[in-house]
């Protein structure tokens, strides 16, 4: 684990299966990651972002609106491979990763939420993860009000000590929705079960080599119509979309 692997040798898993009920007034029947921002599906922006660092194999965990996503990415959209891992029933952010186990081939793999973006240098994140010999690492972003997300408590050497529940107002570090895992973590996830990384799995992982990497850029998500508008403004300002 001392030598940093090449990005092209690391699988990138993107979680795309949620129902996105709060964004339905804007999205209609579209799966949330396929909502267009600047004329492009948000999922395209995420894949582009990771591909710029060198990632070449993307595993899309799909559920709600799976056929729409499969049609769009059929045959590929760029100089990378797209693999689908489809869940037949809602499995949560943890269950869908476990469901994709047989498709994950790299010793370290990246996970990204399909409905959020955190502008972070993935090269530095991977160096951090490798240097710490971490079991799992999370990109964390400082927020002036973490009450809507819940906050992460960092200890010495950026080790994650605890997760706080939502509704605790004040400054804090929030989950940036980007993770690096050792592949063996999959063996600790329950089979055929709907479970949440954030609520069920990560709180147990604090006993392991679990670290938080501080993001240099901001965190956005597209979970509500209001946040979607804000996301478009930020992505235009940071040049991730044009226009």
What's the number of extended β-strand segments?
A: 13
CA-CA gap between termini: 42 Å
Class inferred from helices and paired strands = alpha/beta
Work out the helicity level: 25-40%
Rounded to an integer in angstroms, the radius of gyration calculated over CA atoms is: 17 Å
Q: Strand percentage, roughly? A: 25-35%
Sequence stretches where pLDDT stays below 50 over 5 or more residues: none
Fold and architecture overview:
The chain is α/β, with parallel strands linked by helices and 243 residues long. It is 26% helix and 26% strand. The protein contains seven helices and 13 strands. The strands form four sheets. The chain has a seven-stranded mixed sheet with strand order 5-4-1-6-11-8-12, with helices on both faces. Strands 2-3 form a two-stranded antiparallel sheet. Strands 7-13 form a two-stranded antiparallel sheet. A hairpin with a 5-residue loop joins strand 9 and strand 10 (160-163). Helix 4 (92-99) packs across helix 6 (197-205). The longest helix is centred in the C-terminal third of the chain and has 13 residues, at 225-237. It is globular and about 45 Å long. The chain starts with 10 loop residues before the first strand and ends in a 6-residue tail after the last helix.
């Amino acid at each position: 684990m001392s030598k940093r692997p090449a990005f092209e040798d690391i699988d990138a898993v993107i979680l795309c299966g949620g129902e996105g009920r709060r964004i339905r007034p804007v999205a209609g029947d579209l799966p949330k990651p396929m909502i267009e921002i600047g004329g492009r599906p948000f999922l395209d922006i995420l894949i582009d972002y990771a591909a710029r660092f060198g990632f070449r194999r993307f595993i899309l965990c799909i559920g709600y609106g799976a056929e729409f996503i499969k049609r769009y990415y059929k045959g590929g959209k760029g100089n990378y491979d797209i693999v689908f891992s489809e869940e037949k029933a809602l499995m949560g952010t943890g269950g869908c990763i476990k469901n994709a186990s047989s498709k994950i081939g790299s010793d370290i793999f990246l996970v990204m939420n399909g409905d959020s973006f955190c502008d972070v240098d993935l090269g530095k994140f991977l160096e951090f993860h490798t240097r710490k010999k971490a079991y799992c690492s999370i990109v964390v972003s400082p927020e002036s009000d973490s009450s809507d997300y819940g906050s992460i408590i960092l200890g010495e050497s950026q080790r994650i000590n605890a997760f706080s529940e939502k509704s605790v107002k004040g400054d804090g570090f929030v989950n940036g929705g980007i993770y690096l895992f050792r592949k063996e973590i999959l063996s600790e996830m329950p089979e055929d079960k709907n479970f949440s990384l954030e609520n069920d799995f990560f709180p147990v992982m604090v006993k392991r080599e679990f670290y938080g990497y501080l993001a240099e850029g901001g965190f956005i998500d597209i979970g509500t119509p209001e946040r979607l508008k804000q996301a478009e403004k930020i992505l235009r300002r940071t040049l991730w979309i044009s226009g």
